[in-house]
# Entry
Amino acid sequence: MTQEAYQEQTSSCNFVRQVMDACADCNTCRFLMDESCLFFPELYRLYDKEKETGQPPAEKELHRLADMCTLCGLCPCPDIRADIVRAKIARAQEKGLPAGVRLLADVQNVGRWGCRLPGIYNALLRAPGAARTLKHLAGIARDRELPRLPKEDFFFWANRKGLTGLPSGNPKAAYFAGCTAAYLFPEVARAAVAVLKKNGIAVYVPPQQCCGMPTLLEGEDSLTRRRVNKNLQALLDAAESGCDLVCSCPTCGFFMKVLLQEGAFYSRAYQESVNAGEDEIRIPDKRAGINRHVSLQKSVYGKILKDDSCFSDIDPLARINLSEKIRDMGQYLDHLHDKGYLDTNFCPVNARMAYFAPCHQREQDMGSPYEKILALVPGLEIKRAGGAMDCCGMGGSLGFKESFHEASIRLGRRLAEKIRAAAPEAIVTECLSCRLQFRHLMPEIRVFHPLEILKKAYDKKEDEND
Ligand code: SF4
Ligand code: SF4
# Structure
C-alpha cells in the first residue's frame, strides 16, 4: 500500500491503527493476553509483519482485527476497548452493516418474532436444507447448531403469571432477564423468579429491551443507545418505586454496571454533583468507602479523563445511578445470605459439577458469589474449572458468524480441555453464551445456570411455576 493510500484510510481504520500503535508500544498484552483473547495475538502478528516487510496492514486486516474483540473485558485498558468500539461504530457508519450481521446481532427481535411461531422456526431447523439456507443467508457457520426456540418465551410467561405489574408489598425486585434467557433459555429466567420468591421477594418484570451488548459489538450505535435509554428509564422507575434491581446474565450486568458508566464520573454533571472545584476532577474512591473521593489536578488529567464514550450523550448521573443499583443475582443472594435472610434449607443435589466463572462475571469485581452459595447445597461437589484469564471464545452472537467461528472454537477448546480434565457430571456457569459454546464443544456434558441448581435444591419436585 502506498503512503498516500494509507493516509486516506477511513476513520474506522485510524481507530484500530491507534490501538495497534499504543499496544505495540506498550507490549504488555503480547504475553499477558496470548492465550485469553483473539485480538492481541492478531494485533502483534500484524505489527510484526509490518516491521518485517515495511507494509502497513490493509484496511481489511484492520477491520478483521477489530472483529476479533468480543468485549470480554479481560484486558487491562478500558480506553483501548473504547477505541475498538469506536472503530466498529465508525465502520458501521462508513460501510453499513450486512443484513445477516444485523439479524444475528438483534437477538431481541429475532427472539421476539421467532417465539411467536416457535413450531415453524424449529421445524425449519430440523429440515437440513432449510437450516443450511438460513445459515448461509445470515452468515452463520455451517457447523453451528442453531438453538431451538421454547414453546413460550419468558416475557409471555411472566405476563401470564402476573409479574409484569408492580407488586404492592415489600421487599420486591425488578428482574432484568436479558434476551438469551428470555427467548432461548426461559427455564433460567423462571428459576430466577422461583429463587427470589422462595426468599420472600416479590418479583416485577419491567418492560425491557436487549441490554445493548450484541448490537454494540457490531457497532450499531444508535439502536444500542435507543435500547439503553429505554432500559434506563424502566429500571430507574422501578428502583424509584422501591424495587431492588437484579439481573441474571453476566453480560447484561457487565454492560450496565461497567461499560455504561465508563467516563460518567468525569462528566460535568457528576463533577458539579460532588462540588468539584474549578481546578480538580473528583472521582470516587471505592476502597475508602461510600461518598469518598480522590481529587486529581484538572490541568494534568483533564485531557485524558473525559466522558467521551459512545454513551456520553446519555445522562451521566442516570448511568451512574443504574450501574450502582443493579446487582447480579448471585451478588444479591449472597447479600441476603450475609444478612441472614437467605433460605438455606436446601435439599441434597448429589452431583460433581465444574463451575466456570465467565469473563463478564469476573470483570464485575464482585468475587464469586454463586460458588459461595452453591457450597451450601448438601451433596453438591463443586470445583472451579478454568482460570482468571480463560474465555469460552463465544462472544455472544459473534461465535455464530462464519468469519469468526474457527477462531472462536480455537479459543474455546483450551478451556474445554481444562473442564474435561475435571471430569464433571455437569458444568455450572451463569453465562448462556458460554453454555452455547460448551454445548457445541462438549455435547456430552450438561450445562446449568447456578440459579437452576438452586431452584432444584429448593424444590426437587416438578416446576411449580409452569
Ligand atoms: S491493552 Fe493496555 S496494557 Fe495491554 S498492550 Fe494495550 S496499552 Fe498495554
Ligand atoms: S475486551 Fe477481551 S477480546 Fe477485546 S481486546 Fe480485551 S481481552 Fe481481547
About this structure: Strands lie at 172-176, 202-204, 243-247, 280-284, 293-297, 326-328, 351-355, 380-384, 426-428, 446-448. The chain has 25 helices and ten strands. The pocket of iron/sulfur cluster (ligand 2) is lined by residues 33, 37, 39, 69-75, 81 (CB under 6 Å).
